[in-house]
Specification:
Chain lengths: 278, 189
């Protein structure tokens, strides 16, 4: 397919109105033709804007609530067995022995026997109280864990919120990070928002590293000096996301990622894994 | 959550409107809105800023998702030509009292609607069947009983006119921006 043929089909292609085989031929041409790719992007934008011709309708408030519930994760608390205190035992232990119709000796004997019984029952109660203390300790630990989890979720949500602001609300600057290691699939994208005075770095395909090492982001300031943008470890799928706030993110002249000892270094010591393409 | 809410406030009704126009079913449209926003929320990096504006990308995602839903419901060929009137042409839409909706992308909405309404009816139908109905050119030709070549020409000419109208609108806006003074680019990497 030549450029003329492809250009005749770009609008239909952007509308998804080509038959599959024809669409594949256009796609193949686009892969090797930057000029037609540019025209295709314009066609895609025009097509997307057709959405604005749809009559505007207001979504129901219930949908907003549904979405809100879907995006706010709730910490999962484990279910703990409540301490089981035997109230019958407690009542028996506290009960006073009946005195009616007994002789003094018999009465005393009865009291001694009763006290022995009570002692045994108190021992049982004491044991139960001990177990309750243990349960309380477990509960306290679980609540502390839950509080940490909630804080961590809250931090994640805040980060997500900030990343969303940079990505979706306002105009962005963009830098692509490419791997400095031959044949490595690792790559990254840095988006900067003037409005939010913040940048977000998205990384994918990062190799996993040992626990005593961490990745460290370096941004080059106006003077060309590398300043640490923080350390991080990739997720299990090799992805990572970092927020770069304030002046540092907006005035950088370059960006690189190295592997450093866990906790990070004052200046880069490891080889550059990824760097901004400039 | 703030950004998510701001995002939803800005685009929620637009995403819903497009989905509803494509699917013609409130519940299905709401499902699409939920899918689209959750996708944006969970994978914001799927948006490639280098390839266009966020709104353009969001509309593409919405349209593709809604068309997929339409196809999975097997209602693909039941799209009625011109089934939903454009604003101002038919019954008043229920957004008239909503200032956020009224100002949302007002220039572009108005330019797109003007351009679409200004097209010859057959070009407009072909484009609408492709965009809102998810039909291929061949399916449109069959549905309208027209030769395939005719449908291809209608789509090409119609889209060309749409693009010209948008370019004109933008150049007019840039002229106004220049008069007002454009914002600086400090802060970008």
């Amino acid at each position: 397919m030549n450029c003329e043929e492809a250009r005749d089909l770009l609008d239909a292609h952007s509308l998804g109105a080509l038959e599959k085989s024809e669409g594949r031929r256009v796609q193949k041409h686009l892969a090797g033709c930057a000029d037609c790719r540019l025209l295709h992007e314009q066609a895609v934008e025009t097509t997307a804007l057709l959405a604005l011709a749809a009559p505007l309708r207001r979504a129901s408030p219930a949908l907003r609530l549904r979405l809100r519930r879907a995006v706010v994760p709730r910490p999962r608390l484990g279910w703990f067995a409540a301490p089981r205190l035997s109230w019958a035992t407690a009542a028996a232990a506290l009960a006073v022995v009946s005195l009616g119709g007994l002789t003094w000796g018999g009465f005393l004997q009865t009291q001694v026997n009763g006290l022995k019984t009570d002692n045994n029952r108190f021992a049982v109660l004491y044991g139960e109280l001990g177990r309750r203390d243990e349960t309380v300790n477990v509960l306290q630990k679980a609540l502390t864990d839950a509080a940490f989890k909630q804080q961590s979720l809250s931090d994640l949500l805040q980060q997500q919120d900030q990343a969303m602001r940079v990505v979706a609300l306002g105009s962005q600057g963009r830098e692509d990070l490419v791997s400095s290691v031959p044949a490595s699939p690792a790559r990254g994208t840095y988006l900067w928002s003037n409005e939010e005075n913040m940048g977000v770095l998205f990384l994918v395909n990062l190799p996993q590293i040992s626990a005593d090492r961490s990745y460290q982001l370096w941004v080059l300031n106006q003077a060309g000096t590398p300043v640490s943008g923080g350390t991080f470890a990739p997720q299990a799928d090799g992805s990572a996301r970092l927020l770069v706030r304030g002046e540092l993110g907006g005035t950088l002249t370059g960006m690189a990622i190295t592997v450093e000892p866990a906790g990070g270094s004052q200046t880069p010591t490891g080889a550059i894994i990824l760097q901004a393409r400039r | 959550m703030e950004a998510f809410e701001a995002l939803y406030d800005r685009y929620g009704n637009l995403v819903y409107s497009v989905s509803l126009r494509i699917l013609g079913d409130v519940h299905a449209a709401e499902d699409v809105v939920q899918d689209v926003f959750l996708r944006v929320w969970r994978k914001p990096d799927h948006y490639d800023a280098a390839r266009g504006r966020f709104m353009t990308w969001l509309m593409s995602v919405t349209r593709n998702r809604a068309i997929d839903e339409r196809r999975s419901r097997g209602r693909r060929l039941r799209f009625e030509v011109g089934s939903a009137p454009l604003d101002g042409e038919g019954p008043q839409s229920d957004d008239a009292d909503d200032p956020a909706l009224a100002t949302l992308q007002a220039d572009e909405r108005s330019a797109i609607r003007r351009a679409l309404v200004g097209l010859p009816a057959e070009q407009r139908s072909a484009i609408e069947l492709a965009y809102y109905g998810g039909l291929t050119q061949q399916e449109i030709a069959r549905a309208l009983g027209e030769p395939l070549g005719t449908v291809k020409t209608r789509i090409r000419l119609g889209m060309r006119k749409m693009r010209a109208a948008l370019t004109e609108m933008r150049s007019g806006r840039e002229g106004q921006d220049e008069l007002r003074g454009s914002p600086g680019s400090a802060g970008r990497p």
